[in-house]
């Protein structure tokens, strides 16, 4: 009798997939097949997948031992505070390559998650020592001046990041200046592109930009146009009181 055709073997889950599945069991939730499969790819794209904080937590735990993912697209999800904390822990774990720790994550997109200054500060803290990230997109996250200050401090210490996007965040003109100043002071920085689209800057920012270009002619700075000064910008947003007409004497 002819032997039956061998059934295709199902590849067993690798270490990071096992960690993801275990985390899902502990949290009492069903695993997301898109996440499970994505952990074996170089690009894990889960943009606008309505991922909740517990989904992010399970994913972050799995990524601490992942050997494949280079790009993580998380734009348009509800990362939340707890999800952000585990993501930051993951970035810190991935700072060093060991036998069980290396995602070597290169590209991270966290735009449109609305985590504000607190989330930006958490990412900034891990970014100071991270040596693997090459691109980071934090656009449209309600990051204000304080969050930008934290990110500027990180940029002043980081030596791997090549592209940073903070577009469409209310970082203020002063936030842009602090970012450029820290970047200018960091001689070891590899940053080649700073995107501040939708954010207006002053001539002081242009001056620092030109200083950076003297030593890094390839550096690119994109912003949302110019204002005369921060004071003028403030005045434009204040409604002037209406002048009262004097009543004519009878």
Protein traits:
elongated; 7-stranded parallel β-sheet; single chain; 250 residues; disordered C terminus
Task: Describe the 3D structure.
- The chain has 250 residues and is α/β, with parallel strands linked by helices.
- It has helices at residues 15-27, 33-38, 53-63, 80-93, 116-127, 145-155, 172-185, 203-215, 230-236, and strands spanning 43-45, 71-73, 107-109, 135-137, 163-165, 193-196, 220-223.
- The chain has a seven-stranded parallel beta sheet with strand order 1-2-3-4-5-6-7, with no helix packed on it.
- Residues 95-103 and 231-250 have low confidence and may be disordered.
- This is LR74B-like protein.
- Pfam families: LRR_6.
Concise summary:
InterPro entries: Leu-rich_rpt, LRR-containing, LRR_dom_sf. This protein has helices at 15-27, 33-38, 53-63, 80-93, 116-127, 145-155, 172-185, 203-215, 230-236, and strands spanning 43-45, 71-73, 107-109, 135-137, 163-165, 193-196, 220-223.
